């Protein structure tokens, strides 16, 4: 019998070679090429760097991802054993550190937050949401329909999604603008501490208002839920709601529009194609999901996955994008197939996928009904993607079209 142990005792994160950098412009320009190279060199677990000096492991195997996502006992979402090892000025710390919300907790704490969070979302009237998207879209379209050109990210997808999120949480226009300013600083990671303070002050005003005046909105349902969340817990669950809604829905709208503008299956004039907007959404969620690498967990002790050890208290990210494109599960046309991981899976799966579908589909359909002859203003290969370890996000989506008269606004 050989004296060589068949199990590797190293870990992906302790790999001797350089870690793969996820926060570079090069990665953002061609993540799928990077995932293919990762698969060849490392297999299911990849040593990565989330930010300078912040190591982690990226899971790019679909079945390994499902095992991890459905095992919160060994892969908890609570980062408190990790975050003290990260400098306070690290650009990703505000996004990943512990907060009293459903996203960053496990066990009974997670169950309590999740119960309130899901109930607040389940109370959203989907029929009224459909109407709200239409009412929000028309004035935005009117700001550019007579110009013949527009950036669909900054002038349409972002403001539309933010307006809808504000309506869902019961936020006034004035408070909503303050939330937007703070959220932008937090996501851009340039002045994250200021952004968090600015955002928190606005949302705490909203919380006080909704505790006193019950409305039909997410904030009111959180404030009056039997879980009895305090103001701090309310605050960070609302921040999570904005964070989980704003970036992914904006990216989903923009990435789907890009697909529809560049793929002949959707027709030269968009509306004449053989596939629907819903088909395009599903394809983007499968091939290029708006949150590419997320669902972060932190093993509390070293754990063996396959032939590699994952170290304790270091982040494990699921590459939702790479796992969806795992050759082991891709066997033909994914049209109509919704077995992707874009919504994650397990106890932390997104509870608002129905909401996201409605907002994204209606936003796209409203735009294409109003301006069916959209064309990219630049070749698709010249479009820029925002660097960052988590999202798959166009920096801009410039389009041109025949000038159109304004829409009636209800």
Main attributes?
3-stranded antiparallel β-sheet; Cytochrome p450; 410 residues; 14 helices; disordered N terminus; alpha+beta
Give the SSE map.
Layout: E1 20-21, H1 25-29, H2 31-42, E2 45-51, E3 54-59, H3 62-69, H4 93-96, H5 107-122, H6 126-142, E4 149-151, H7 153-169, H8 173-188, H9 192-212, H10 218-223, H11 231-262, H12 277-287, E5 293-297, E6 303-305, E7 308-310, E8 316-319, H13 320-324, H14 353-370, E9 375-376, E10 398-400
Parallel strand pairs: 1-2, 3-8
Antiparallel strand pairs: 2-3, 4-10, 5-8, 6-7, 9-10
Description:
- The structure is a single chain.
- The protein is of the alpha+beta class and 410 residues long.
- It has a single domain (12-400), classed as Orthogonal Bundle (Cytochrome p450).
- Helices cover 46% and strands 9% of the residues.
- It has 14 helices and 10 strands.
- The chain has helices at 25-29, 31-42, 62-69, 93-96, 107-122, 126-142, 153-169, 173-188, 192-212, 218-223, 231-262, 277-287, 320-324, 353-370, and strands spanning 20-21, 45-51, 54-59, 149-151, 293-297, 303-305, 308-310, 316-319, 375-376, 398-400.
- The chain has a 5-stranded mixed sheet. It has a 3-stranded antiparallel sheet with strand order 4-10-9.
- A hairpin with a 2-residue loop joins strand 2 (45-51) and strand 3 (54-59).
């Amino acid at each position: 019998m050989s004296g060589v142990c068949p199990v590797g005792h190293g870990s992906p994160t302790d790999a001797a070679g350089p870690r793969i950098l996820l926060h570079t412009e090069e990665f953002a320009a061609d993540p799928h090429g990077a995932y293919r190279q990762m698969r060849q060199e490392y297999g299911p677990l990849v040593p990565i760097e989330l930010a300078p000096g912040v190591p982690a492991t990226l899971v790019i195997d679909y079945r390994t991802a499902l095992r991890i996502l459905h095992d919160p006992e060994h892969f908890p979402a609570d980062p408190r054993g990790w975050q003290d090892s990260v400098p306070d000025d690290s650009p990703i710390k505000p996004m990943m550190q512990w907060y009293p919300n459903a996203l960053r907790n496990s066990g009974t704490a997670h169950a309590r937050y999740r119960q309130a969070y899901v109930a607040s979302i389940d109370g959203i009237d989907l029929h009224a949401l459909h109407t709200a998207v239409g009412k929000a879209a028309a004035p935005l379209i009117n700001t550019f329909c007579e110009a013949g050109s527009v950036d669909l990210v900054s002038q349409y997808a972002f403001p539309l999604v933010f307006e809808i999120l504000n309506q869902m949480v019961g936020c006034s226009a004035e408070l909503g603008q303050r939330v937007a300013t703070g959220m932008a600083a937090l996501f851009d990671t340039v002045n994250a501490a200021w952004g968090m303070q600015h955002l928190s002050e606005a949302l705490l005003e909203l919380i006080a208002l909704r505790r006193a005046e019950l409305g039909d909105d997410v904030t009111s349902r959180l404030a009056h839920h039997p879980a009895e969340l305090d103001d701090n817990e309310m605050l960070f669950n609302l921040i999570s709601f904005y964070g989980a809604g704003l970036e992914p829905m904006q990216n989903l709208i923009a990435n789907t529009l890009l697909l529809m503008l560049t793929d002949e299956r959707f027709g030269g004039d968009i509306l004449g194609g053989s596939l629907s907007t819903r088909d395009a959404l599903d394809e983007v969620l499968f091939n290029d999901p708006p949150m590419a690498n997320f669902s972060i967990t932190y093993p509390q002790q070293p754990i063996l996955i396959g032939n590699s050890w994952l170290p304790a208290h270091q982040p494990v990210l699921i590459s939702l994008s790479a796992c969806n494109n795992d050759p082991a599960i891709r066997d033909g046309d994914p049209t109509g197939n919704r077995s992707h991981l874009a919504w994650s899976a397990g106890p932390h799966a997104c509870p608002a996928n129905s909401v996201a579908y409605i907002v994204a589909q209606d936003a796209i359909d409203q735009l294409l009904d109003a301006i069916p002859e959209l064309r990219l203003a630049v070749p698709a290969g010249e479009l820029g993607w925002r660097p960052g370890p988590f999202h798959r996000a166009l920096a801009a989506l410039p389009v041109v079209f025949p000038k159109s008269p304004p829409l009636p606004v209800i």
